[in-house]
Amino acid sequence: MRQFKVLGVAMATALLVACGGGGGDGNQTPRVSITSVKVMGDSLADSGTFSALPAGSGYGRIFGVQGSTSKIFSELTAASYGISNLCNFYQFTGTTFIANPTAGCTSYGVGGGRVNPGADKGGAASPLSIVKQLTDAGTGKTYLASDLLLIDGGGNDAADLVGAYLNAAKDSGAAFMTMLGSIPGVALPTGAAGFPAAGISYMTAVANTLFDAVQTHALNKGATHVAIINAPGILKTPRFQMVLDSISAAYGGGTAGATARAQSEALFTSWVVAFNTQLQVRATGESRVVLVDLYSNFNDYIAHPADYGLTNVTTPACPATGVGTDGLPTYNFETCTDTALSAMTPPAGATGGANWWTTYAFSDGFHPTPAVYKLASQLLNRSLIQAGWL
Q: What residues make up the domain containing 13?
């Protein structure tokens, strides 16, 4: 059966643990007095949850190239308001999450964060739940007009869904069905033929869950400045491109392989689009919420790299350190530093001498370089400017 041949691609069974135009840095005097920036989300919004782990953990401060000037999008945007002290609210000890002993940290984002994490990731009680992050941030307080909330998510939820779908040939769709049933509002399919539409239903429900949490734990608590960053085009990342290539190879390449690859990419993309579309629906008419379209802009970075000062949007800058059980490359952010990359012999075809890596889009197979984090911050800043918030 064609469908389950795609589902059975072994390389793609354990997919992603993330999650992420130029100009508009927001360096002008802000039109709104923002004195506190609170961040919730996944690896793109993580300011150092895992950085306290012992040497050899493979984690750095951020999910990307490490360096004294390497900042993620939320840190760059906070700096536009004169706030330079964002730090991680949670700290991972190696076995559990604890509150960061450093007082005043308001960056709740956690690498691997999901709107709907499964039981194997701690479920709703874990800081890997973006809903819990919102809950913890809003507990016992009323937000002020001087508070800005930055929220991202959805990418890892989509990746989990794709992984369960691709594993269906092994488990007859059990994991996929379990995932569909783990969140209210999903129209459950009666067989594999209904899986594509069920994926759209699931991601729509994930978007509703996120916005409901924003409503309950932010807007209903007085928040007046909430920016939600939609899910990026994860199918454009090197990791997903390798997965799609493996689907093509499973069909023997050629026309049949290209067709299977294109159909799979269109299906998985439709799930990400469903999430983003529903977020847009929920945010429409809500003046306290700005929806930032990272999805369209990220796709444009990949389609027109030269327009954004990028020279490579397909190859990770960090060197692979091994191969995972899924057959995909593994990376070590702890050792992937700006100094180490600049000391390398540049890859064939790279330009810029020792700075070759500064114009790459991806640090590893899934996460951005500082260049793309900066582009995302510029996009966010422009959205805030358009709303009159910056």
A: 2-386
H helix and E strand count, the chain = 12, 8
CATH of the domain at 192: 3.40.50.1110
Rounded (10°) CA dihedral 334, 53, 15, 64: -30
Cα(378)–Cα(387) distance, integer angstroms: 14
Domain total of the chain: 1
Tens digit of each residue's pLDDT, the chain (390 residues)? 334 334 444 344 434 333 433 344 545 677 889 999 999 999 999 999 999 999 999 999 999 999 999 999 999 999 999 999 899 999 999 999 999 999 999 999 999 999 999 988 999 999 999 999 999 999 999 999 999 999 999 999 999 999 999 999 899 999 999 999 999 999 999 999 999 999 999 999 999 999 999 999 999 999 999 999 999 999 999 999 999 999 999 999 999 999 999 999 999 999 999 999 999 999 999 999 999 999 999 999 999 999 999 999 999 999 999 999 989 999 999 999 999 999 999 999 999 999 999 999 999 999 999 999 999 999 999 999 999 999
